[in-house]
Design goal:
single chain; 68 residues; mainly alpha; 3 helices
Length: 68
C-alpha cells in the first residue's frame, strides 16, 4: 500500500502539467496538433521550457544522466 505522500505529485510533475497545459493552449490558438509544424519550433521559449520541465520531471531536478 502506498502512502499519501507517494501519491501526491511533486513540484516537478506539477510544473510539467502546467507546461503541458500552456503548450496545448498555444497549439490550439495556432490551430496546430504539433509544435513541429510551427515556424518558431526551434526558437520557441515555451517549447524549450516544456522540454526542460520534462527532463526535470524525469530526473527530479538532479543533474547528470538517468535511465529512460
Amino acid at each position: 500500500m502506498q502512502t499519501t505522500d507517494a501519491l501526491e505529485m511533486d513540484k516537478f510533475e506539477l510544473y510539467l502539467d502546467e507546461m503541458i497545459e500552456k503548450l496545448h493552449k498555444c497549439q490550439k490558438e495556432k490551430h496546430s496538433a504539433s509544435c513541429s509544424s510551427c515556424e518558431l519550433y526551434l526558437d520557441c521559449e515555451l517549447r524549450n521550457n516544456y522540454v526542460k520541465a520534462v527532463y526535470n520531471s524525469m530526473s527530479k531536478g538532479d543533474t547528470g544522466g538517468f535511465e529512460f
